[in-house]
Amino acid sequence: MIVIVANSLPPAIRGKLKLWFVEPKPNVFVSGVKDSLADRVVDLVLKYAPESSGLLVFKSTREAPFYRIYAHGTPAKTLDVLTGFQLIVDRNDGFRSSEPDF
Question: Domains plus CATH for the chain?
Fold first, then answer.
């Protein structure tokens, strides 16, 4: 399985992805293509998508943790690695602790 999430994509790339993917939301693509085609799609998207597209690509793998995340450009959420696991960091700039400041 492969999932592509973007801030925005050019119409040419979106049109190409619609050949193999379902687009449940604008700039969110989901597909269950075979691994060989998934690898080619990831290579193509990372090569031709502009930096402004802000891509996050989630691809299933056969090795633990059974997924790989690719980032391209400046996605809305950042990618981080913690003890070998790729994680998506969701930073809430408006977060305030409920504990009082002393």
Answer: 2-75 (3.30.70.240)
